[in-house]
Amino acid sequence: MATDETQDKGRHIASHAAIRGIAAAMVVVYHLREGALYLHPRLPHPSAMERWYLLVDVFFILSGFVITYAAAPDGKPLDRAQILRFWRARAARIYPLHLFCTALLLTIAAAGALNALRRGDALDPMWSPAGLGWVLQEAALVHSLGLPGFRFLNPVSWSLSAEMGAYLLFPALLTVAARRGGTWLLLGLSAGFYAFLLIEGRTLQIAYGLAPLRCLAAFVVGLAICLDRSLWARLSGRACDVLTATGAAGFALVLATGLHDVLAIPFAALAVAAAWPDRGRIAAFLARPSLQYLGEISFSLYLMHWVSLIVVTNLWMHGVSRLGLPYWAEQTGWIAAVVLLSLPAAALTHRFVERPALHRFRQARRAGTSAGLRPAPLARGSGG
Predict the structure, then answer these.
(1) Are 157 and 140 in contact (CB under 8 A)?
(2) Most buried among 52, 88, 360, 372, by the most CB within 10 A?
(3) Domain boundaries, the chain
(4) Three-class SS string for 79-96?
(5) pTM
């Protein structure tokens, strides 16, 4: 596939940033559908919300596009020095906030264990040798390869683990894509994975085992779109609007009906491809400062909302639940508290955890550029 040599290198893609932020916010809502974790039955919610896990596949497609656009906009393979810089940059992008959230959740779990010991209760299985092994695997971001029964400390971190696999393979993917017919070969492998799910009747709700393949298949789609973005660069604003809306509507249709999860992928890919030129009325709407900021903090929101959920649940169980409030009031209060804690928590961790790490690596990137190397990618996003 042809590369686009006329587009400005490293241009901020406002539409992609907003889509990422909206998707992250929808993931938060998706996890709130259960209501307070200790209250049953669950809160009533649209059946389509049960499939909002497909928003993670949108993240993976965006990640494939943005990583390629930042690291290899010309489609040329990276040399050894650039590969090492790329891997260091991605590790620095992902691990600081991930480890911070892991430490917070481990502290909360330790406090619960101390209370259990005081009461003479049995400890959570997490504190067994096997459980501590799970924690170490999660901290190292290799837990997406885990088996059924694996306990996630921060359940959403499985996607980071899966993306780390895509980052490790990214240089090899570029090398294959640079060869004649290479991009089509990669897309064929992705199509093979999706065909396997269709044949087996399996959904894309995969958080371990095949999770790295789930990520890689969508990541390759984003990479292919980026390498052939000259096709989309020629679209008028009206065409961008029509195609972006078509992609979004098709994706929503899959969520709302019994269509197989795999059918959401081409629609998501269409929306990502048509949105990237940042033209048209939809792009103008997505460029609003509030949506851009939501995109900027999306990675923090994605990771920190589960920490907020656990904090609020613990407070509710040991405080509000004793007030004897009606079911609807307790559930509504829990949801409001999680949302009100998640947003400022995301803003603070973005300011004091993410940005300092990005600043250090931007300095390293400038040093590398002055030495004649291509800059290491520092794309923002939920794991991307």
Answers:
(1) no
(2) 52
(3) 14-97+142-370
(4) CHHHHHHHHHHHHHHHHH
(5) 0.91
